[in-house]
Amino acid sequence: MLEKDGKAQITAFDEVDHVFSGTKKYRGYRKFIEKPKLKSLSQANNGYLIIRCVLTVVKESRTEVNRNTAVVPQSNLQDQLCQVWKDGQGADVTFSVGGQLFEAHRCLLAAWFLVFKAELFGPMKEKETQCIKIDDIDPEIFEALLHFIYTDSMLVDEHYKESKPAKLHHLQVASDRYGLDRLKVMCESKLSECIDVETVATTLVLAEQHHCKDLKEACIEFMAPRNVLQAAMATDGFKHLVASCPLVMKELLDMVSRSG
């Protein structure tokens, strides 16, 4: 509060913290000063009243929490789709893979498997055919493909863990064949984590043939030390690497020479 001549008048008020909210209908703060105090100050200055406002800008943004906001539950769509797949509810197509039958839903498969879209919905489809036979893929790998389509996640069980990276090799080949790019990258990531002397050459061939750049670089870097390379050279996978990927061998030898 200021006097008539503009000098500050020291007046003590109770300190009150207040955060202005845009949700209120009024502007300002109603409890700034009591009316009797305001009247006495006005009378002391012959009816004059000057208020000096000091604006403080707080850089940190304030987040208002609405205590009445309902908590939105996490989506369980993947679990529901997985259960529909396992129960076979509404399945309208069957795959015969290595003597095993897998039921599925045409619409969902067509959305993921572009290679099946023409066969399932195209003009050349056989309306009477409800079973599609696939001969060149392992039933476990095909089941893993279906699991990914219905759940957007990799199928991991104890048998799968024990057999990797062999199963991961087959799953990556299948995912590349059927155009499941996300699953392909997931396999690539898992294979990068389990590179060892026994399988690194085979994994490197796979990475080269299926255009997995990051996995290829990880394998070459793993074999760069001379002692690791010598151990890998004793494996059957390395013989296959030499025969099928001569350009990769050149890259590998260049890396070894640079590493000393």
UniProtKB/TrEMBL annotation:
Cited SUPFAM superfamilies: POZ domain, TRAF domain-like
Pfam family, one: BACK_BPM_SPOP
SMART domains recorded: BTB
Record pathway: Protein modification; protein ubiquitination
Coiled-coil stretches noted in the UniProt entry, renumbered to this chain: none
One Gene Ontology term from the biological process aspect of the record: protein ubiquitination
Source superkingdom: Eukaryota
Entry's family note: Belongs to the Tdpoz family.
Name used for this protein in its record: Speckle-type POZ protein-like protein
Organism listed in the record: Aegilops tauschii (Tausch's goatgrass)
